[in-house]
Design goal:
Layout lengths: L1 H23 L4 H15 L2 H6 L4 H27 L2 H8 L2 H13 L5 H21 L9 H24 L8 H37 L24 H20 L6 H8 L2 H11 L7 H21 L1
Length: about 300
């Protein structure tokens, strides 16, 4: 049933991306991410007491997991704010290609014919979706596209690392222990990032505006390091953590099964693009949808082959 868990995780992940896009509209990225990590840590905090510390021999691997995911999120959140959801989803969907290559070369995984057919169709759909994105004037040299590519690479590395952490063939760590501690470390890391990279710059910018006698909102500059966009609360922010925690828990439950294939699980999870695309089209009213609809049908067909090959 690991493949069914992967599909549930994909649906939750699509809702997560959509809540993230809505929360980041005209909002400061770093505090939104900080609140996300804190709430996620609180949700999984019972796992800290249920599984124990395990010593530094265990924790050092989880700290690395936290750093990988947080770096991917930082780059991905900035990209999500500045790019259409119907572009971010498809580019994110190229992550399984990297995971597939890593799973074959690092873990020696083998796919059957139906699974290879699904992978091939998915790769073709991803290429077509990226070509569709060019019609919106978003080229490969765009700085937010570069942030997104970095997020994809780091996310793929994290996905492969999950297999190493939780598979009984390797470290075999309890998924609850990983979830509890990695979200805890992420909250600590993000508190440091917020305190060093956002709050001082935000305070300085507000003070500068006051000295000049300008009572208008502070300058909304956007920079992946120094950001002075004002933060505003939205009830979509806690939904980010709720959807993400649900997606992560189901995902790690799937990976804990000995027969689970990381390449297939990762590919199915990228089916979340179907959910985020629908929300981007119906709720956010994004453009250039017709040229992307056929590409998404091809992606859906690839998910069908992956399902049939995994039964």
């Amino acid at each position: 049933m690991w493949w069914l868990l992967a599909f549930v995780s994909a649906a939750l992940l699509g809702c997560y991306d959509s809540a993230k896009k809505i929360s980041l509209k005209d909002n400061a990225v770093i505090p939104v991410l900080f609140l996300n990590t804190v709430l996620s840590a609180l949700i999984f905090s019972p796992f800290l007491f249920a599984t124990g510390f395990g010593g530094w021999a265990v924790q050092k691997y989880i700290v690395l997991k936290s750093a990988l995911v947080l770096a991917s999120w930082l780059a991905g959140y900035f990209a999500m704010k500045h790019l259409p959801l119907t572009i971010v989803g498809p580019v994110n969907a190229t992550r399984p290609v990297l995971v597939l290559l890593g799973a074959i070369f690092l873990f020696g995984e083998r796919l059957n014919l139906l699974q290879w057919t699904g992978v091939g169709l998915a790769m073709a759909a991803y290429v077509m979706l990226r070509l569709s994105g060019k019609k919106e004037g978003i080229g490969a040299g765009n700085k937010w596209i570069l942030c997104l590519i970095l997020a994809v690479i780091l996310g793929a590395a994290s996905g492969l690392y999950d297999k190493y952490l939780m598979s009984p063939e390797y470290l075999g760590l309890d998924r609850r222990q990983v979830l509890g501690w990695y979200t805890f470390y992420q909250a600590l890391m993000m508190a440091a990032v917020t305190g060093l990279m956002w709050y001082p710059v935000r305070t300085w910018s507000a003070a500068t505006q006051g000295v000049r006698g300008n009572r208008s909102p502070v300058n909304k500059t956007e920079n992946p390091v120094f950001q002075t966009t004002p933060f505003r609360w939205s009830w979509s922010i806690p939904l980010i953590s709720l959807f993400l925690c649900g997606a992560d828990y189901v995902y790690m439950e799937a990976l804990s099964k000995p027969e689970a294939l990381i390449a297939v699980v990762s590919m199915i999870r990228r089916g979340s693009v179907l959910v985020s695309f629908a929300i981007g089209a119906l709720l956010l009213r994004e453009k250039n949808l017709k040229s992307k609809a056929l590409d998404l049908c091809l992606l859906l067909l690839s998910m069908v082959f992956l399902y049939l090959g995994s039964r």
